[in-house]
Each structure stands twice: as C-alpha cells, then as structure tokens.
Design a protein that fits this description.
The complex is a heterodimer of chains A (249) and B (250).
Chain A: H1 11-44, H2 46-50, H3 59-68, H4 70-83, H5 88-109, H6 116-119, H7 125-138, H8 141-164, E1 170-173, E2 176-179, H9 180-187, H10 193-199, H11 212-238, E3 243-244
Antiparallel strand pairs in A: 1-2
Chain B: H1 2-13, H2 20-48, H3 55-85, H4 96-134, H5 143-170, E1 178-179, H6 180-205, H7 218-225, H8 230-249
Helix pairs in contact in B: 2-4, 3-5, 4-5, 5-6, 6-7, 6-8
Chain lengths: 249, 250
C-alpha cells in the first residue's frame, strides 16, 4: 500500500469510521469478556452464587470476591494502562451480571422452575465501582491492588446485605432453627444438596451473623489483594500484541 | 466538475466500508438459531430427555446429536475451505481503503464470535448447571450437554477460526507472523472441547454430587481464561486502524 494514499475521503468520514469501530470493539470486548468471566466465575464460585441457601455468612463472603476480582483486574490492566479508560472493572462485572441474570431468569426459572428469589446472582457492582474509582484517582496499580482489593472483599457483604438480609432471618421449622434461605433450600432439594450441607453448614462459629461475616470479609479482602496483583499481570500478558513465527509452533 | 462527478459516481458504485447487512444478518443468525434451540430444550428436555434408555430419548436427543455433529463438520470444512481457497495472494499490495473495508469485515466476524462465545460460555454453560441440579444424570449425552458441549462449543470454534483465517488471509496487519493473543483467544476456547473428555471421564469414574465448583471442572476455567486474548486482538486492531486513520483524524 502507498503511505501517501488515504483510507478515507474526508475528516468527517474518518471520525465516523473511528466511532463505528469504537462500538464494534466495545460490543465484542463486552461479550467475549462476559463469556470468559462467566465460565470462570460459575465454575469457581458458582454454587455460592446460584442459591440463596449457599449464600451463607462465611464461605460465600470469602469465596465470591476472591474468584471475581480476577477479570476486572485483567481488563483494567488493558483498558487503563493502554487507553486510560477508567471502567475496566465495571464493564467486566456488568457483563458477568448480564449473563447471570439472563440465565437465572430464562433457564433457572424458565427451564427448571427455581424461583428467581432463590437463585438471583450476587451483587458485585459496589466493589467494581471502588476498584475503578481508586484506579482513576490514584493512577496506581499497587494502590488499587492493596486498597481496592481489600475494599473489594470488605464491601461485598454490605453490598449484598439489603438483598440477602430478609432471607437470613431465623425461623423455626420442625423444631429446628434455621434461616429463611435454608428453608428455601429444604423445599427445593437439588442434586448438590448433600455437598451443600457438608461444605456450608459446618464450622464452630456458625451463627446468624455476628463475628463470622466481618472476619470472612477481611480474609477475602486480603486474598483479593494478592489475586489482583496476579491478574493484573495476566491482563498485561493477554493484552500483548506479540507475533510469533510459524516455525516456532 | 466532471472529475468530481466521476468521483461521486465511483463512490456510489463502491461497496460500503461496513456491510451493515452482513452485520445484522450474522447477529440474527445466532439469536434466532439459539432461540429455536432453547425452545427445543424447553419442549423436549422434559418430555423426552429425562431417561437416556427410553426410545424417545434416542428419537429427540441422540438423533439431534448425530445431525449436529455432521452439520458442524460440513460447515467447518466448507467455511474454512472457502476462506482459505479465496485468500488474497497479493495482500500486501491492497489500497488503504480496501484494507479499511477488510478491517470492517473482520470486525463483523469478531462480533459474530462475541455472540458465539456468549451463547457457548455463558448462556448454555450455566444452563447446564441448573439442569444437573434438577435431573440425575444417567448419560454423558444429557440434553444440556448435547446443546452445550456438542453444539454451542463447536459453533464458537467454527466462528473463531473463521475470524482468525479471515484476518490471516486478507489483512496486511497479520502478515508479520502469527498473532499470539489471537491464537490464544481462538485455541484456548477450542481446548474446552477436548477438555469435555476429561469432564465426562471424571463423571463416569467418580460418583459425585453435582457441584459446579468441583475441581474436575477447573480445566474449563483455565481454558476460559483464554478469552482474555481478545484484549491483545483489540490492541493489534487499534494499532492497525490508528495507522490507517491517524493523519485524517489529526
């Protein structure tokens, strides 16, 4: 091609072409990240995210932030560090939540008839806003990892509290004290129910709240810091534009 | 004046930079086809998909599996063969405008890849979770698997490889070698399909309760990460488009 030739007829056309590509790129990025993030999240923290009786005060609070901070960190590593776009975390989380809500409604409810108030997804938006906000204000990957990662873990339970609180009130059923979410689970027995009882409903500090949730949130925030660092560098690698020789493969 | 008129005529006769018709039809193809698939699941999942030893299971689900496998192999062969066979052998000598047009066509492919990945990795994979929590599995070819593993995964593989082949055979940007992250974003999700072998082997060998976060599923997670290779593809494309448009946007 000749360097002197132009690909467009006018500046106006150049602007139009540029904007059109912006939309096509954003659409593709959104849905491909959605797909990768969703399969990652559903297979590392999915069971806690699927059902209200798995949304306990200890393991849900611990697991969900740790496994969900991954893709936001990686996408930030590309969108902020290359383009100064401060929405890497929120665009990832919105993608994940869109995929989850469509699924919970059309498939969990629409195909297998679990009521939506039993299988709605966790809310990850507050943590994503905090991550993007800290990165925007500080421009620092380290500060975003340390402060943002910790905040991401800490804010998860309060961010979900207004939704889950009504289902964590104690009820007595057949002489047993349990939460309303537990009662939902007993009425909708699933093939994973025995595993749920073994994994979730145990522990010396099992209570209706009190100290367990904050301790779990701090632990989750601590691990989220490490995971953020790790996935930031994953993101940088995935964002590389390297070409390799065909002879090497 | 005459020269201007000629130029306008040439522009009018020229193919548009972005073929919107292909973009819309490509997107509708996935949406309508998968809408029909979801309808089929809703009707025949419950009425014929609960017992793999029943004759109706063979009729409505195993036949679906056989037909889709044949169609996928034929589609992949024809599509990939066509893209390769019609490749541009003088790709480095095309005009900048033609290059821009091909970038648009490439992005139509990538938008289709986005639809395919969404339906495969998100929609039908999580759907499989709720099916397994409801139905005791008595076969590797349960209805949700026939759709998820053997339909939606091959479709995104076919779309992704087509997109890669288009870029490699028609765009000057991709003539300097093999773009690593493009390979990652296409081959990684492709590897999820062979990983089904591990998954089904494990489910056959161990009597397990249905747990989506079971370590047996971590192979899917690892290869799902490869979708992030799209970040590298976006960066390569932005670099190429910047070169094409830079002086006009300055």
């Amino acid at each position: 091609m000749s360097a002197s030739q132009s690909a467009v007829r006018s500046r106006a056309e150049a602007v139009k072409v540029s904007r059109t590509f912006d939309w096509m790129i954003l659409f593709t990025l959104f849905f491909v990240v959605l797909g990768g993030y969703h399969i990652h999240y559903m297979l590392t923290g999915g069971d806690w995210d699927f059902w209200t009786d798995w949304k306990d005060r200890r393991l849900w609070v611990t697991v969900a932030p740790i496994v969900s901070i991954t893709f936001p960190a990686a996408v930030q590593a590309c969108l902020w560090w290359r383009y100064r776009l401060p929405f890497g975390a929120i665009v990832s989380v919105l993608g994940l939540l869109l995929g989850e809500w469509i699924n919970r409604y059309l498939n969990f409810w629409g195909w297998t008839y679990f009521p939506v108030n039993f299988c709605f997804p966790s809310n990850l938006i507050p943590g994503a806003i905090v991550l993007d906000g800290i990165l925007l204000l500080s421009g620092s990957m380290t500060l975003t990892a340390v402060l943002g990662g910790l905040a991401y873990g800490l804010i998860f339970y309060p961010g979900n509290w207004p939704i889950i609180a009504p289902l964590h009130v104690p009820v007595e059923y057949n002489g047993m004290v349990m939460t309303l979410a537990d009662l939902q689970g007993y009425n909708y027995v699933r093939t994973g129910t025995p595993e749920y009882i073994r994994m979730v409903e145990k522990g010396t500090l099992r209570t209706f709240g009190k100290d367990v949730a904050p301790v779990s949130a701090f632990f989750s925030g601590f691990v989220s810091i490490i995971i953020y660092f790790l996935w930031h560098f994953f993101g940088r690698w995935f964002a590389s534009t390297k070409f390799i020789s065909g002879e090497n493969i | 004046m005459a020269a201007t008129t000629e130029s306008v005529k040439a522009d009018a006769a020229e193919a548009p930079l972005l073929n919107k018709r292909n973009l819309i039809l490509g997107s509708l193809l996935y949406i309508i086809f998968y809408g029909w698939v979801r309808w089929y699941e809703g009707v025949y999942g419950w009425s014929a998909g609960l017992d793999s030893f029943a004759p109706e299971f063979e009729t409505y689900w195993m036949n679906f599996l056989y037909i889709e496998m044949v169609l996928e192999i034929v589609t992949a062969s024809v599509l990939w063969g066509y893209i390769w066979k019609t490749r541009d052998r003088k790709v480095l000598s095309i005009t900048p405008r033609e290059e821009l047009r091909r970038h648009f066509t490439h992005w139509v492919w990538l938008v289709c890849y986005a639809w395919a990945i969404y339906y495969g990795a998100s929609y039908f994979t999580e759907q499989d979770g709720t099916w397994h929590q409801t139905i005791v599995r008595d076969t590797d070819f349960t209805p949700s698997h026939i759709i998820e593993f053997y339909l939606s995964y091959p479709i995104y593989i076919i779309t992704g490889v087509s997109s890669f082949l288009y870029a490699k055979t028609r765009l000057p940007t991709y003539q300097q070698g093999l773009p690593l992250q493009y390979l990652v974003s296409v081959i990684g999700p492709f590897m999820i399909l062979p990983n089904v072998g591990l998954n089904e082997w494990g489910h056959t060998f161990w009597f397990m309760e249905e747990l989506f976060v079971a370590p047996l599923h971590y192979g899917f997670v690892f290869f799902g990460w490869a979708a992030l290779g799209v970040l590298g593809v976006v960066n390569i494309e932005v670099g190429a488009l910047s070169k094409l448009l830079k002086k006009d946007l300055a």
